TrEMBL record:
InterPro entries the UniProt entry points to: DUF72, UPF0759_sf
PANTHER family: UNCHARACTERIZED PROTEIN YECE, UPF0759 PROTEIN YECE
Lineage of source species: Bacteria, Pseudomonadati, Bacteroidota, Flavobacteriia, Flavobacteriales
Position of the signal peptide: none
Name used for this protein in its record: DUF72 domain-containing protein
Species: Sinomicrobium pectinilyticum
Length: 298
C-alpha cells in the first residue's frame, strides 16, 4: 500500500489527535449493550509473495492457512476485478464460521465511474459478494484522492441506492471532506443517518485523515505502518484509543494492518492482538509468525 508513504518516517509527528467532539455523542447514542466489543483484525491480502515468511513451508492453500491465524481479511482483490459467485462461494467454504471478509467496492464504481451511472456496476459487484453470506463483514468504498466535495450529490445518490442490509464504510481522501467544517458536518450527518462507518486511515504521509470521527458504533481503521520502529508506538496509541471508545460504548472494532513492505503485517497484527487481549479482556487468537521469538521486528 503506497498511499501516504514517506521516505523518512522518523521526521513525522505521529501523535494522535483528540477525538472529534461528536464522537462521544455518537457512541452514547449507539451504545453497545453487550459486555465486550466484536473485534475483527487482519491483513489486506493473503498472498504468499506479499506475506513473506508468514506461511509454513509446504502450505498448499494460503487462504485456508491464513484463516487459521486471523479472523478477518480486508479483501482488496475485489477492487481490481469482479469475481463470479462461484469464487466467493469457494472462499466461503475455506474459512471457519467466525471468519469475516471485508471487501472493497470495485474501482469501476469509485474510480472510473466516480459514483456516476453506478447502479449496474454496483449490482454486479453485490451479486458476487452476497455469496459470502454471514461471513461478509463491512463492505468499504474508497474514493480517489481527487474526489472532492463538489460532487457531494453523487455520494448522496450512492448511499441512497446502497442496500440497508449490507453494512458499508466509506473512505474519503480529499482534504476538504474533513477540513471544510460545513462539508464535514454535512458528510457526518449523512453517514450517521444511514448507519455508515467513517473509515479512519492512519498513514505516515496523510495525518489529516486521522479525523477520529465515528459515525456509528463501528471503528473501521486502516493502519499503514512505515516499516519503522514507530509502528509499534502507534499501535500502542490505538489500543489506548480503542479502549477509551469501548468504555464509551463502542461495539465493533475492524482493524486492518498494511505495510509498504507487507512482510511485517502479520507480526504487527500479532502485537496488536496481544495488546488488545490484555487491555480489553478479549480472547482473540494470536497469529503464529516465523518471528515468534521476536517481540518486535524493527
Amino acid at each position: 500500500m503506497k498511499f501516504g508513504k514517506v521516505d523518512n518516517p522518523e521526521t513525522v509527528d505521529f501523535s494522535f489527535p483528540e477525538d472529534h467532539p461528536d464522537t462521544a455523542a455518537v457512541l452514547s447514542a449507539n451504545k453497545n449493550k453487550k459486555k465486550s466489543p466484536q473485534i475483527y483484525i487482519g491483513c489486506a491480502k493473503w498472498n504468499r509473495q506479499d506475506l513473506k515468511n508468514f506461511y509454513p513451508r509446504g502450505t498448499k492453500d494460503e487462504l485456508v492457512y491464513y484463516a487459521t491465524q486471523f479472523n478477518a481479511i480486508e479483501l482488496n482483490a475485489t477492487f481490481y476485478r469482479n469475481f463470479p459467485p462461484s469464487q466467493f462461494a469457494a472462499w466461503y467454504d475455506k474459512v471457519p464460521e467466525n471468519f469475516r471478509f471485508f471487501p472493497k467496492v470495485n474501482q469501476m464504481v469509485s474510480h472510473l465511474k466516480r459514483l456516476l451511472d453506478f447502479q449496474g456496476p454496483v449490482e454486479e459487484y453485490l451479486d458476487g459478494v452476497v455469496h459470502l453470506k454471514e461471513k461478509l463483514g463491512t463492505v468499504f468504498l474508497q474514493m480517489h484522492n481527487n474526489f472532492a466535495p463538489k460532487d457531494f450529490d453523487r455520494v448522496v445518490s450512492f448511499i441512497e441506492f446502497w442496500p440497508d442490509e449490507i453494512p458499508l464504510a466509506v473512505e474519503f481522501r480529499h482534504t476538504d471532506w474533513f477540513n471544510d467544517p460545513g462539508v464535514a458536518a454535512e458528510l457526518y450527518h449523512l453517514l450517521e443517518e444511514n448507519n455508515i462507518a467513517n473509515i479512519i486511515v492512519d498513514t505516515a504521509g496523510r495525518r489529516d485523515l486521522m479525523h477520529m470521527r465515528l459515525t456509528n458504533n463501528e471503528a473501521f481503521v486502516r493502519y499503514v505502518g512505515a516499516n519503522h520502529e514507530s509502528d509499534y508506538d502507534r499501535l500502542d496509541e490505538w489500543v489506548a484509543r480503542l479502549k477509551s471508545w469501548v468504555e464509551q460504548g463502542l461495539g465493533h472494532i475492524h482493524f486492518f494492518v498494511h505495510q509498504n513492505l507487507e512482510k511485517a503485517s502479520p507480526l504487527l497484527s500479532a502485537y496488536l492482538i496481544k495488546k488488545l487481549n490484555k487491555e480489553l479482556g478479549s480472547s482473540l487468537s494470536v497469529p503464529h509468525t516465523l518471528a515468534d521469538g521476536q517481540q518486535k521486528l524493527f
